Amino acid sequence: MKTLLNKLTAALPPGTVAVAGGTVVLGAASYVHLGVAGHSLSTQALANVSVLWTIVMSVGIGVFFPVEQELTRIVSARAVLGHGAAPVLRRATLLTGAILGATLLVLVLAAGPVADLLFHGDRALVAALGGAFTGMAVCYLTRGVLAGLGRFGAYGTQLAVDGGLRIVLAFGCALFGLHSALAFSLILAVAPVVATLVTLPALLRAVGPGEQIAWRDLAGGLGLLVCATLLSQLVVNAAVMSTKLLAPSDSALIASLLSALVLARVPLFVFGSLQASLLSGLTAAFTAGDRPAFWAMLRRIAMVVAALGLLGGVPATALGPWLIEVLFGIQDPVLGRFDFFLLSAGTVAYMFAMVLGQALMVFKRHNLQLLCWALGTAVLAGVTLIPGEVAVRVIAAYALGSTATVLAMLAALRLSFPGAAAAAGEAPRQTADAGAPGVGAVGR
Q1: How far is CA 120 from CA 58, 275, 287, in A?
Q2: What is the DSSP letter of 436?
Q3: Using an 8 Å Cβ cutoff, are 366 and 228 in contact?
Q4: For the chain, does the N or the C end have fewer beta carbons within 10 angstroms?
Q5: Angle, vertex CA 97, rays to CA 96 and CA 103, nearest 5
Q6: What are 178-204's pLDDT values in tens digits?
Q7: Residue 135 contacts residue 192 (beta carbons within 8 Å)
Q8: In which element (H, E) is residue 282 found?
Q9: For the purposes of burial, counting CB atoms within 10 Å of the CB of 260, is it exposed (0-12), middle (13-18) or buried (19 or more)?
Q10: What letters, b where the CB count within 10 A reaches 16 and e where it falls short, cover 313-337?
């Protein structure tokens, strides 16, 4: 067993283990937060929290997670070339503030319709949604720089503090009798801000002076990446929102779907610990011109993703209907084992798409990444809109949309980089020749 664990650790990108602990805490916090809410709130209030949680985990991540990804890629490449990250942090802060301001402005202008359509007219939940977006903006900004600099200890600490606070605050709401959707929703706003403040000193100590970065280099691919990430979050979170629109009065199905998705997406929480270190490692290898290391890392991560899919999918398929009843207080589960199988299959395909999307991103092919997610979203929409039972349609749409995205990304990598397989098997001599910055992959 120890040998197996050592082999698995060796297959992971550097920094993964340091992030893993914080990812576990943050992932567990999602279960605790929703589980305590499920046992504390009425069905309608839980449905409101479920919808808000889904929006935060889809729109919020779609808008602000690309900031972390671009900063990780840019700062990691600058580190290889010996440039400090302070200029990047200053301009990225202004850019992130502008994105947040625009997002909050849209939310304010549409507060009435959003409250009526999604939260049964409760405008306080719209305000809580804005607070959650603010928390995501500050945490993803700082995490991107920390990951690019290789400060994965501080990165993992921020994740752990964020998750720990969500757990403490969720139990606090239950113990003090705060049986309101607003109280449980505000947790998503408070925890990330506090976690960011805790790790801010470590970030400021790590950034150093360097050459100024052009706005074009910082924001050039961000728009495409935001669109691609929004589509990716639409694919992974559309089931709950689609059900809310197609069957707005079926609160039991909405709550059951969210709980089932949380269970089926357990591997995604573990995969989260790979993303920052994977992008940083791929970028460093690409910038240094070490193409064999790049493709070898990609192959190893693909095997890890397959293992995660099996370890998470089998228990979710076998025990899913029972677990959502025990863990989330769903008294009358409306989903069966085959539903959980499709949700788990969709999760595995989604993780493969995320890995391949990062490879395209390192190659600065943000446009191809966006096209692939657009194709997956089109498949998802087509399956969702066909006649039939709502639950079957939205679950099958998730699985088929994710699979279509993976196939499109494989084709994009194959067509764009036909020599990829050969590059992965290049001799060490060629690697050494390409190892200097500005030579090899970077120079070409």
Answers
A1: 20, 36, 51
A2: S
A3: yes
A4: N
A5: 90
A6: 788 888 889 999 999 999 999 999 898
A7: yes
A8: helix 266-287
A9: buried
A10: beebbeebbebbeebbbbeebbbee
Length of the chain: 444
How many angstroms separate the CA atoms of 56 and 343, rounded? 20
CA distances from 419 to 291, 292, 415, 439 (A): 11, 12, 9, 17
- The label of the residue with tokens 């910055």 reads 437
Instruction: For the chain, list residues with pLDDT below 50.
Output: 1, 4-5, 8, 419-444
Work out the number of other CB atoms within 10 angstroms of the CB of residue 268: 20
**Distance separating alpha carbons of residues 166 and 430, to the nearest angstrom:** 49
Q: Which amino acid is at 91?
A: R
Please write the tens of the pLDDT for every residue from 197-232. Answer: 999 998 988 888 878 888 887 777 788 888 888 888
Per-residue b/e over 272-284, b at no fewer than 16 CB within 10 Å? bbbbbbbbbbbbb
DSSP state of 59: I
Question: In a 10 Å sphere around its CB, with 0-12 CB exposed, 13-18 middle and 19+ buried, how is residue 173 labelled?
Answer: buried
Angstrom distance (rounded) from CA 226 to CA 210: 27
Condensed to tens digits (0 to 9), the pLDDT of residues 364-379 reads: 788 899 999 999 999 9
By C-alpha distance, which of 298, 415, 286 is closest to 357? 298
pLDDT of residue 337: 80
- Tokens found for residue 83: 């440039």
Ramachandran class of 82: left when φ > 0, alpha when ψ lies in -120 to 50, beta otherwise: left
Separation of alpha carbons 248 and 241, rounded Å: 9
Which residue is it, tokens 């030579």?
439
| Spatial distance between the Cα atoms of 247 and 47, rounded to a whole number of angstroms | 12
Residues sharing a CB contact under 8 Å with residue 193, sequence separation 6 or more, in sequence order: 134, 135, 138, 139
